[in-house]
Design goal:
- Two copies of one chain form a homodimer.
- Chain A is mainly alpha-helical.
- Chain A has one domain: Tetracycline Repressor, domain 2 (Orthogonal Bundle), CATH 1.10.357.
- Helices cover 71% and strands 0% of the residues of chain A.
- In chain A, α8 packs antiparallel against α9.
- The radius of gyration of chain A is 19 Å and the shape is elongated.
- Chain A starts with 8 loop residues before the first helix and ends with a helix.
- Chains A and B meet through α6, α8 and α9 of A and α6, α8 and α9 of B.
- The structure holds a DNA duplex.
DNA sequence: ATTATCTATAGATCTATAGATAATGC
DNA sequence: ATTATCTATAGATCTATAGATAATGC
């Protein structure tokens, strides 16, 4: 077995931390929560992240965003060349991932961390999540002669937040998240056609 | 001056706590944050809320939800009898209020509080926010012969999350939130018409 | 040898309690 | 008299550090 067949202990820490942070946010998750979930002691986390909680959160968030950048790129590349299919593909990708609560990230998590890192992370989130979706809307609207609302950034962030809402409502609904996503995508597509 | 012309000290506490809690969530806001903002000592908060932080959060959240119930009712009652106008009215109401991050509430804030209170608060949130919007969609779709997607609950939660996304994006955009809301409402309206 | 974990504990922060003092409203 | 605030402090929790011990991978 060559390198990285077995994930490192550090990667396991990151995986668990991502689950917890993405669910409950920076302040609500303690290092003890993460350690307990891993079955190790809280102090042991400092072996992997000598600068502690903030370093771990930044690493977790950055990795998640870079994974989104790549997952988004690949899922869009694989999808048929029509807007509806591409939005469905994006929805499936996002639904396969831990939730990204942009509102909480911006208002709560990010204010706790170092300003320089915050700006960098925000940029990464923008480039990895919002801009790719925005580009899909722009290309789709152009290609399919849809109503250009002029502000595809708003379409992109609304689209993201709808998927987020679906991930929440899965808790209270027996419907499949993909079905809900497709239904809302259908509404948006119709909304962009005609008039 | 009869009762309640001057808001009580307790009401001031609630007002400040709501600003902070709705922005950053239960765990990220400390009693010291609230006291500092009020210009008093942290221990003084226990005069108004003998059971401490949790009691304060529950009171704040419940009040906010009841205010939404009433604000929603009034704003819908005042709006013209067409779906688009009613959605615009709801958007304006929500944009006039502190943000409600449903995702964060469900995943993060609520898990910290007592189970009985949590269930009660969730019910109140459902009745105050989601159900009124759902009812507006149902009546509008019926009245205007729009495409019945069958699941107006999803429309309602998507609508709420779009407004939430707009409240976030105001930080990064020079556009008026009301304009953004109207634009997305227009897309949704078109999406519900025809096919 | 290197990597991962442990125990023990310091120091900071946060919630909460007790009891004293000041401000307010009949 | 009642309401609102204060000081002082206990106790819990949380992050972080130091140094010892165990596990792992050539």
């Amino acid at each position: 077995m060559s390198r990285q067949v077995k994930e490192s202990a550090r990667d396991r820490v990151i995986a668990v931390a991502e689950q917890l942070f993405s669910d409950r946010g920076y302040k609500a998750v303690t290092l003890r929560d993460i350690a307990d979930e891993l079955g190790i002691r809280q102090a042991s986390l400092y072996h992997h992240f000598p600068n502690g909680k903030e370093e771990l959160f930044i690493e977790v968030t950055e990795r998640a965003m870079l994974r989104h950048a790549e997952g988004m790129r690949a899922t869009i590349a694989d999808a048929p060349e029509d807007l509806e299919s591409q939005l469905q593909a994006i929805a499936r990708w996002m639904l396969s991932q831990p939730p990204v609560d942009m509102a909480r990230m911006v208002r709560s998590d990010m204010v706790e961390i170092d300003e320089v890192q915050r700006h960098r992370l925000m940029q990464t989130a923008l480039r990895s999540l919002l801009l790719p979706i925005e580009a899909v809307f722009d290309r789709g609207i152009d290609r399919e002669g849809l109503r250009d609302v002029g502000h595809s950034r708003l379409l992109a962030s609304s689209f993201l937040s709808i998927i987020e809402a679906i991930q929440v409502s899965v808790r209270f609904s027996s419907r499949q998240p993909e079905d809900m996503a497709d239904e809302m995508i259908s509404v948006v597509m119709n909304g962009l056609r005609a008039r």
